[in-house]
Amino acid sequence: MAAKSKRRLTRFEQVGIAAVIIIAGMYLYVNRMYKPLQRDSEKARKEVGSLQKRVDTLKNEPPNSAVFKSLQKAQAEWQQAKSRLDHACKCLASSDDVPLVLASVMENAARSNLKIRALDTAEAPRPAASDQQRSRSAATAVVAPDRSYHRLVLVGGYKNVRDFLDSLGKLPKKVWTENIVISLRNENELLVSLLLRI
After folding, report:
1. Residue 7 DSSP class
2. For residues 69 and 32, what is the distance between their CA atoms, to the nearest angstrom?
3. Whole-number Å distance between alpha carbons of 44 and 80
4. Domain assignment present for 19
5. Is residue 111 part of a domain?
6. Looking at the domain assignment, is residue 2 inside a domain?
7. Within the chain, where are the H helices?
8. The predicted structure's pLDDT at residue 143
9. What end-to-end distance do the CA atoms of the chain give, in Å?
10. Is residue 160 scored above 50 in pLDDT?
11. What pLDDT does residue 139 have?
12. Is 59 exposed, middle or buried (0-12, 13-18, 19+ CB in 10 A)?
């Protein structure tokens, strides 16, 4: 009985598999690198607001040792939370930093041999109703700064796209990637559209 011959993948199937790998890699990249920092920043903001209220309440108490010990403990916790918040905020770009961050993004795209098809200012995505209710109920003393959104469209090969996304994680200021859409432009190139949050 003759051995079965193995069917080779077509070029289209190979590129399709590469696109799936890119999407999976980007999903892991966003969830492992950016979301933890964002969660830490929000947690630190809430802690600062909560601990500041406790400190203000304790300042009005009559002076006795138990109250002062509680005040000292609350002040130490507040300083720790503020330190964590400051550390997280150092990674966030101010509005003055946005042009420099965008220039760095474009340099990294060029270094990764990607062609830039478009870079436009975009509106922030609207949160779902459940997200709006959660944000209303999360009372905090510190308001998160507004972020700048930009739609970037690139053309290039799988390895070039991967190298570019890796390079974003090494920038001094954090750049979040959202709403990533990948389509096959031809056998050797992918068309990638992503929303940058700076």
Report:
1. P
2. 39
3. 9
4. yes
5. yes
6. no
7. 11-29, 35-59, 65-90, 98-111, 129-137, 158-168
8. 33
9. 63
10. yes
11. 41
12. exposed
CATH of residue 114's domain is 3.30.70.60
For residue 29, give every residue at least 6 positions away whose Cβ sits within 8 Å of its Cβ, in sequence order, or none: 165, 166, 169, 177
Taking the C-alpha atoms of residue 186 and residue 191, their distance in angstroms, rounded to an integer, is 9
pLDDT band at 134 (very low <50, low <70, confident <90, very high): low
Q: Which residue range forms the structural domain that includes residue 37? A: 11-197
In a domain, 3, yes or no: no
107 has pLDDT over 50: yes
By the 10 Å C-beta count (0-12 exposed, 13-18 middle, 19+ buried), 37 is classed as middle
How many structural domains comprise the chain? Answer: 1
Given a contact cutoff of 8 angstroms between Cβ atoms, the answer to whether 183 and 190 are in contact is: yes
Q: What pLDDT does 193 receive? A: 93
Averaged confidence pLDDT in the chain: 79
pLDDT digits (tens, 9 = 90+) for 21-64: 888 777 777 777 667 777 777 888 888 888 888 777 767 666 66
Over residues 171-177, mean pLDDT = 83
- Exposure pattern of 118-146 as b/e (b: 16+ CB <10 Å)? ebeebeeeeeeeeeeeeeeeeeeebeeee
